[in-house]
Write the structure tokens for this entry.
Amino acid sequence: MLEKEIIYGLQQLSNPVLDFIFQMITHLGDQYVLILLVAVFYWLINKRSAFKLVFTYIFSASLNELIKGFVNRTRPYEEADIRSIGPKTHGSSMPSGHSQASSVISSILYLEYRKKIPWLKWVLLANLILVPLSRMYLGQHYLTDVLVGVIIGVGISIVMSYLVDKMGKFEYVYGLILALILTVYAIIMKDKAYADVKNVFVAAGGFTGFAVGYTIDKLWVDYDKKPYKWTYLYRMLLGIVGILLLYFGLKMMLPKSSLWADYFRYMAIGLWATCGVYTLFKVLKL
């Protein structure tokens, strides 16, 4: 099979340096990169761009999980002569979640800032190519997995970017509706094994917190002062410290391996990262 031969050929190049580089590159498609980007955009640059990125990412990730459930394709490392370089990614191989996520991030940022920052397109193009390549090199996905992930990610980004623009000043309403849909879906899935649906509850809780916090921030906090000089650093420090305190503090306080504990922990983080942080910025005049 040609796809198998491509991965086999890539892994013939394997050495400790390349293994490390590609394991780092593949993390550009992780949720933690999204969280960092959203934090930077929400606290320092443009709240609406942050909303558009999160809204599109969550919609894309939900569709990805739905397709994976139908396709249920085995991963390349399950072949006898293909190995998993680094940790194994479980679940269906088609489509590639990392490739789809990196495509959403690259596409939304390109659509938002292609005119303001001309050189950014080359960075985003590199991300669009290297993350899918890393997924094949590491033995986690076939070529068609990453290609389908990229196509879906780019397509969804174009459509959702247009729709969010059309939502006008009522975009927060659609965010709340999506949060409700995700929460209802989490309730439906609550009796499944913890490992199988943990990400569903994390995503539902995190986005619900973000959507509710975004609404409170927009309608009641109403503070949109642009940072200057050292306030950039102060905002990032306050925001990140708050996230870390909530993440580790609630992790110690709430039950372990509990779906609803994960939901409420990430919901609290979403609330803090939006209306919580901006309430503090407003009080401190940052």
